[in-house]
């Protein structure tokens, strides 16, 4: 894995096996980061749109809380995002909340976008200034495709941030096999860090009961050692995703379903179905109207993740996965 990440993530400091700790999935490692870096009562800072399972993974058993940065109409993937994180951090401090880490999802789930290098450098400076750890969930790192006739974004790992901006001991990256390699059944994730004390804590205590299967490790090792297979698999994957993105956007446009135009990462697209919410129910409780629409869609055989799950600031957004065959996509959008 170290050789693989050195090739694809291009870290400024080369990785070796001692920098990487495996567990039975990234879910366990999310919690491990929280337990190793924070004390009960502390908080973690996130952007308002974020991966829907973070609250369960990092908060359920740790005694932590989340502080969310709101971005309004600003581009949260540009350097402008830094001032919004700073504002949320300052407000939390005024409220007596002790923030210990900034958590990013990069590439982003559910918006499918990549942080610019300027944004990552700015966030690294922000973390260094305020004595924060920078945790980056990069599980979609190699699921970044090229869309024709669009301004495509590139993935940059926080491990590739220029030296001297942030203490490497503050930087921790989460990665796994479930997304880029379509191998969720292996239940195999890893955390990458140059911080020896953090690595020792995760290996020696926190993840003691989350050890990965030896069978999974063996399969993963054989996959990563077969470089021609890995190169071909990843290339086939991003080419297929690019084709499906073009198809799904065409189908959504034909059906006049509003969706996020930006983004070229991940397996999903962000929909705006707010016009289909029950107007009377929405006046009383917009989130209940969103849940009712989700239930109605599910009854018709279409299961979408609701915006509320991803801390959407307003009801009516849904995440739709488009990595299906063409027939399934056409039927789902028609319904």
TrEMBL record:
Source taxonomy: Eukaryota, Fungi, Dikarya, Ascomycota, Pezizomycotina
Entries under InterPro entries matching the protein: Aminotransferase_I/II_large, Ethylene_sulfur-biosynth, NHTrfase_class1_PyrdxlP-BS, PyrdxlP-dep_Trfase, PyrdxlP-dep_Trfase_major, PyrdxlP-dep_Trfase_small
Keywords on record: Pyridoxal phosphate
Tree of life domain: Eukaryota
Pfam hit, one: Aminotran_1_2
Family under the similarity heading: Belongs to the class-I pyridoxal-phosphate-dependent aminotransferase family.
Domain named Aminotransferase class I/classII large: residues: 7-334
Gene Ontology molecular function, alphabetical: pyridoxal phosphate binding; transaminase activity
Gene Ontology biological process: amino acid metabolic process
UniProt xrefs under Gene3D superfamilies: Aspartate Aminotransferase, domain 1, Type I PLP-dependent aspartate aminotransferase-like (Major domain)
Name of this chain's protein: 1-aminocyclopropane-1-carboxylate synthase 1
